[in-house]
Amino acid sequence: MPRSFAANIGGQNEISQHLSKIRILCWIMTYPSNLNKSAIHVRNTWAKRCTKTLYMSSENTAFPTIAVVDHLEGRKYLWPKCRGAHQYVYDHHVDDFDWFLKADDDTYVIMENLRMLVAQYDPNKPFHLGRRLKYKETERSFMSGGAGYVLSREALKILVEEAFQSPEKCTPITVVEEQEDVNVARCLWNFGVMPIDALIGGRESFHCFAPPIVLQPDAFPREHWYARHSYHPLKRGPECCSEYSISFHYVDGYWMYMLEYMIYHMRPFGVGYYDCPDNIMSIVGKPT
Known about the structure:
Elements: H1 3-19, E1 24-29, H2 35-44, E2 52-57, E3 66-67, H3 78-93, E4 99-104, E5 108-109, H4 111-118, E6 128-130, E7 132-134, E8 141-143, E9 149-152, H5 153-161, H6 180-189, E10 195-197, E11 206-207, H7 211-214, H8 225-229, E12 247-248, H9 253-264, H10 280-285
Parallel strand pairs: 1-2, 1-4, 2-3, 6-10, 11-12
Antiparallel strand pairs: 4-9, 5-12, 6-9, 7-8
Helix pairs in contact: 3-6
């Protein structure tokens, strides 16, 4: 093996070891009926790379899942379930981790790229990162729940300690509402925590759809909700996505294992797989 190639691998391994020390708790929104259809594939693949993973549901099971609501499942109950999950994570783990990732049971996450992203930020300051979407026809924005979003430790504290205690500024848990991602953003922005772009190299890193969809050059016509609500103009084809992409949504079990293989096991010889971003040393050096 050429010395320069080996040195590049060694350098990246050293950086990866540094980033692996960033403690990320991943909590997965799931349902009792989805455990063997969706959640099991998350558990078998990317969730193994979280520092800790919790599966939030309406029942305690041996999977294991944690009951964070005591009522029926369904889209219209997403907000009470999401708020209950944030409360549980805060009550049991807020001081044990640096970052808290929310994802669905059909979201695939490349944890190494997520760690590279959050390494630029101080978890003791409030940050809310993910795929930024426009909120209706306003200047406000929120992070897509399906693509997943990540809160710093300080942002989680503000969400629970301040926002959840203020029903006039943050939707109460008793309200039946499906827009959990909008509600989380509203609770946070009312207390000064604004969504932050997760663009890497000027391209999106969190994605609301699976690779076969977002990579199509003719995907999402102008009138499609994704094109209309994307905070930044959509780029299509391979330009849609950062080479250090972090997440994809609507990923079924078949594609979970396909992505796992393509990312972690297949290597194209001589293509420069081991290149690091130009600003990698500033990323791992001094978080903001």
